[in-house]
Amino acid sequence: MAERPYRADLLSDTLTRPSEAMRTAMARAEVGDDVFGEDPTLRALEERVADLLGHEAGLFTPSGSMANQLGVRLHVRPGEELVGDSLAHVVRAELGAAAVLSGISSRTWVSERGRFRAEDAASLMITGVGPYQVCTALVIVENTHNFGGGTVQSLDEIQRARAITRERGVAMHLDGARLFNAHVASGVPLEDYGREFDTVSVCLSKGLGAPVGSVLVGSTEAMAESRIWRKRFGGGMRQAGILAAAGLFALDHNVERLTDDHARARRAAEAMAEVVPAAVDVGSVETNIVIVEVAAAGWSSVAFVAAALDAGVRTYAVGPGAVRLVWHLDVDDAGTDAAIEVLTRLLRAAPTAA
Ligand SMILES: Cc1ncc(COP(=O)(O)O)c(C=O)c1O
């Protein structure tokens, strides 16, 4: 496999490349035409993920965005709304898909680091107002929270929200792109998270290291309907068992090891906090994502990202003064050491004002 051009690539956990063993599993996958429901490997993956999350059925999609948008589409009719936090991937990073593809509007609450609180959802929801206002049909929860910095959501808050939404006839969808990170960090069984939601999407192509794929889970009836919408959205696939085999391999080999990513992220956070305590809140580093407030060390995020890249460490600006670092399968201890060396050096030496 070609060497990466970076000493540490912390841009995203979507960058992982399939290992030789994963590629072998893909090459050997038994396949069929999935549009006709004939791919045994895909069926096995859908059933396995549904089982893990305590749901009846699953549906493989090419991306997390499609899985989320199918979930949204199921619960919200055109002209109704979904509610979520202002940093949620569904509202912030899916390019307005709910509005464009499904005629759905969105309203948001502001949260601290994406942390979900039942009362935020409850106070924003509008139900039972007849033809006068937009009716809330869905609450979105993201776990872990990406732009919040890998925040693990409290099961207690989710359960409280579930009780309220059930009473008010509002559905709940979990964007679990990184639910496996939340599970290994919190010890909460996947099924305990899963059963609180009408639908859950999980990504295989982030920390789990598969090249492509997500799975949406829900009731048998809901997944049958989503299968039709997936085809309508252009996501009907043929011999996709080749991709599903990578997902099955990832579930067998790459779940428990997510704790290594979490430990490396924390080690780097501690090293940076030692240099500029205001730049990193170590206590908030719960999983594989670290947000560095580079402004606290006199940097703009753009200048910091450029300087780190010059020194071989790729990072991502998430605001004018904040940079995101993401640990994953392809960043080992040596890569983490290199990142610490570069990032602490930069934090110590703010650029001189022009
Ligand atoms: C929280 C979250 N949800 C959904 C997605 C969408 O996944 P995809 O890039 O596969 O569409 C992402 C992607 O980074 C994400 O971070």
Task: Give a written overview of the molecule.
This protein is an alpha/beta fold and 354 residues long. It has 14 helices and 12 strands. It has helices at residues 20-27, 40-52, 64-75, 89-92, 97-102, 118-124, 155-168, 179-186, 190-194, 220-232, 241-253, 258-275, 301-310, 333-348, and strands at residues 8-9, 57-61, 81-85, 105-109, 136-142, 171-176, 199-203, 214-218, 289-293, 313-314, 316-319, 322-326. Strands 2-8-7-6-5-3-4 form a 7-stranded mixed β-sheet, sandwiched between helices. The longest helix is centred in the last third of the chain and has 18 residues, at 258-275. The chain is globular. The chain binds pyridoxal-5'-phosphate (PLP). Residues 14, 63-65, 68, 89, 142, 146, 175, 177, 203, 205, 214 line the site of pyridoxal-5'-phosphate.
List keywords for this structure.
354 residues; alpha/beta; seven-stranded mixed sheet; three-stranded antiparallel sheet; 14 helices; 12 strands; binds pyridoxal-5'-phosphate
